[in-house]
Design brief:
alpha/beta; Rossmann fold; six-stranded parallel β-sheet; 9 helices
Length: 361
C-alpha cells in the first residue's frame, strides 16, 4: 500500500510502498477513505512528543472495513467506520471504571515476536497511536474503530475521530458544561472550533472565542461563539473579564502553550474550571498564581476529551446529520496523500482549520 512515512524527526514525510499484514483474531483491515491532518501529527513530526521510528503518522480517519479476524464482533466487512487512537482493552481498571480513554493495556497490540502489522519482519514499522492513518489501508485492533451510518460522508466523519471528539468530550465529559454556564475557548483551530460548537450544543449562555488571528472571528461565531477576543490586542484576561464580570465558569485551552494555559486559569470565576486540551510540549512547565486556588478554581487535563468513542462517535454523527454539529466549515481544503507536507506547512501559519487527505475510491 502507499503511505506517508516519517523516518527522521523534523524531515518531510516520504511517500513509499509499505507492506501491511493480514488481520489477526481481533484485528480489522480498513480501506482508508479520508484522514485529517492534525496538530498532534505535527508535534510528533517535529519531535515535541517522541515516537518510535520509522512510522506512518495520521490518526484522524474514517474508512470502509475490508476484512476482519476470526474473533471480531464489533464490525464486519463493508461497514463504514470512524477510528480513534483511544484503543481500549475492556478489562483493566480504567476501562471497567468507565475511563477507557486512559487505557494503556498492551492487549490491543501484537505480542512481541509476532509478525508486525506494518513493514516486514526484517524491517518492521512502528504503528502510530494504534492507527497509522496516512496510508491507503489500516490494520488495527477492533477496539480502535466504531461502525457508523452509511449516509454519513466519510471525509467529514474522519474529523470526528480526533479533533471533534476531543473538543466535544472536553465540554460534555471532562468539564460537563451545563446549560446557562459561561465558557471561554483559547485557540480557534480545529479542536478549538469543535470545543466552541460543543459548548453551544451544551447550552452555554456565553461563549468567548479567543485567538490571535482576528480573521477567525467569523468562523468562531459560525460555530457558536457569542463573543470574540483578539489575543493580539492587549491583555486577554482583562478583555474576557470586561465581557463577563468576574470571569468565566469554564475555560478551555486548545493551543498547548504554557502562557495560554495560565491565562485560562486566571480568567476563571470563583469555583471555575480550566480544562487543558492542547498538547503542551513535554519539556514545558506551567506556572500559575497560587492564591487562585483559594477561590476553588480547578486546573485539569483532558485526554482525547475523556471520550467513550464507541457511543460518542455515533452521537456526533447524528448531531452532524441533524444540523447541530458543524463539520463542513472545519475542512479548509481536501488534498491528496502526496500533499501532506504542504498541509503541515500551511498548518503552522495558523490560518486554516483542517486539511483532509481524501483517497480515491
Amino acid at each position: 500500500m502507499k503511505a506517508a512515512v516519517l523516518r527522521e524527526v523534523g524531515k518531510p514525510l516520504t511517500i513509499e510502498q509499505v507492506e501491511i499484514g493480514k488481520p489477526g483474531p481481533r484485528e480489522v483491515l480498513i480501506r482508508t477513505s479520508a484522514v485529517g491532518v492534525c496538530h498532534s501529527d505535527l508535534h510528533h513530526l517535529e519531535g515535541s512528543y517522541p515516537t518510535p521510528l520509522p512510522t506512518i503518522l495520521g490518526h484522524e480517519s474514517a474508512g470502509v472495513v475490508e476484512a476482519v479476524g476470526a474473533d471480531v464482533r464489533r464490525v464486519k466487512p463493508g461497514d463504514h467506520v470512524v477510528t480513534c487512537l483511544s484503543a481500549f482493552c475492556g478489562g483493566c481498571q480504567h476501562c471497567l471504571g468507565g475511563r477507557m480513554n486512559l487505557c494503556v493495556a498492551p492487549d490491543t497490540r501484537r505480542k512481541e515476536g509476532a509478525p508486525p502489522r506494518l513493514g516486514e519482519a526484517v524491517a518492521p514499522m512502528a504503528q502510530f497511536l494504534n492507527l497509522s492513518a496516512f496510508a491507503e489501508q489500516m490494520l488495527v485492533h477492533e477496539n480502535t474503530c466504531v461502525s457508523i451510518r452509511k449516509d454519513m460522508p466519510l471525509d467529514r466523519a474522519a474529523l470526528i475521530g480526533c479533533g471533534v471528539l476531543t473538543g466535544y468530550g472536553a465540554v460534555a465529559r471532562t468539564a460537563q458544561v451545563r446549560p446557562g454556564e459561561t465558557v471561554a475557548v483559547i485557540g480557534c483551530g480545529g479542536v478549538g472550533l469543535a470545543t466552541i460548537n460543543a459548548a453551544a450544543i451544551a447550552g452555554a449562555s456565553r461563549i468567548v472565542a479567543i485567538d490571535a488571528v482576528a480573521a477567525k472571528e467569523k468562523l468562531a461565531r459560525e460555530f457558536g461563539a457569542t463573543d470574540f477576543v483578539d489575543a493580539s490586542q492587549g491583555e486577554v484576561v482583562e478583555q474576557v473579564r470586561g465581557l463577563i464580570k468576574g470571569g468565566v465558569q469554564h475555560a478551555f485551552e486548545a493551543v498547548g502553550v504554557p502562557s495560554t494555559v495560565e491565562q485560562a486559569f486566571v480568567m476563571l470565576a470563583r469555583g471555575g474550571s480550566a480544562t487543558i486540551v492542547g498538547m503542551i510540549p513535554v519539556t514545558e512547565k506551567i506556572s500559575v498564581p497560587g492564591y487562585h486556588f483559594l477561590a476553588e478554581k480547578v486546573l485539569r487535563g483532558s485526554l482525547m476529551g475523556s471520550n467513550r468513542f464507541p457511543t460518542d462517535v455515533p452521537i456526533l454523527v447524528d448531531f452532524y446529520l441533524g444540523g447541530r454539529l458543524h463539520l463542513d466549515q472545519l475542512i479548509s481544503r481536501r488534498i491528496g496523500l502526496e500533499d501532506v507536507n504542504d498541509a503541515f506547512a500551511e498548518m503552522k501559519t495558523g490560518s486554516i482549520a483542517r486539511s483532509v487527505i481524501v483517497f480515491p475510491e
